[in-house]
């Protein structure tokens, strides 16, 4: 005759077994509930969620694409320019003033061209014609991208008209048209110069000329 297990042992075993099944069922139920909630919301199931990154500026996308083409073609001047510009954009992205628009990129291209022109002048004075040619080749690449950027350029005559128009607008609003207010209205989001190819130093000079010495 088989030996019978004590009733206390059987009760303890059944209690532990029921507890384990309940825990598994609870965990499965929580997981299923979370999965169903995400599926119903139409969102992909991810361990961590983040907002979608904004689309890059068209000119930035072109620069990145052209870098691959220049590498295959072994276009040295273009490679130097593109690597320098893209590195500057990357560095700016880590600051409080990232480069995110075509207009900002054009400003960077112009700044880089000025630096190359200064270097070319120094090499010319030192009699280094070979280095002058390298800098001038890079300047031609930079000017090519500025010209093809599609960003509207503004000349001095247009700037003067804009400054006068902003002065009139501020006067109509009852605002004292000081230089800072005019600059803000010109260059701020939605301003007349927002998204246009224009140097801030030029804007400041024209504003001073139109307004006199009023700060």
Automatic annotation (TrEMBL):
<protein>
    <recommendedName>
        <fullName>Altered inheritance of mitochondria protein 41</fullName>
    </recommendedName>
</protein>
<dbReference type="InterPro" id="IPR003789">
    <property type="entry name" value="Asn/Gln_tRNA_amidoTrase-B-like"/>
</dbReference>
<dbReference type="GO" id="GO:0016884">
    <property type="term" value="F:carbon-nitrogen ligase activity, with glutamine as amido-N-donor"/>
</dbReference>
<comment type="similarity">
    <text>Belongs to the AIM41 family.</text>
</comment>
<dbReference type="GO" id="GO:0005739">
    <property type="term" value="C:mitochondrion"/>
</dbReference>
<dbReference type="InterPro" id="IPR042184">
    <property type="entry name" value="YqeY/Aim41_N"/>
</dbReference>
<dbReference type="Pfam" id="PF09424">
    <property type="entry name" value="YqeY"/>
</dbReference>
<dbReference type="InterPro" id="IPR019004">
    <property type="entry name" value="YqeY/Aim41"/>
</dbReference>
<keyword id="KW-0496">Mitochondrion</keyword>
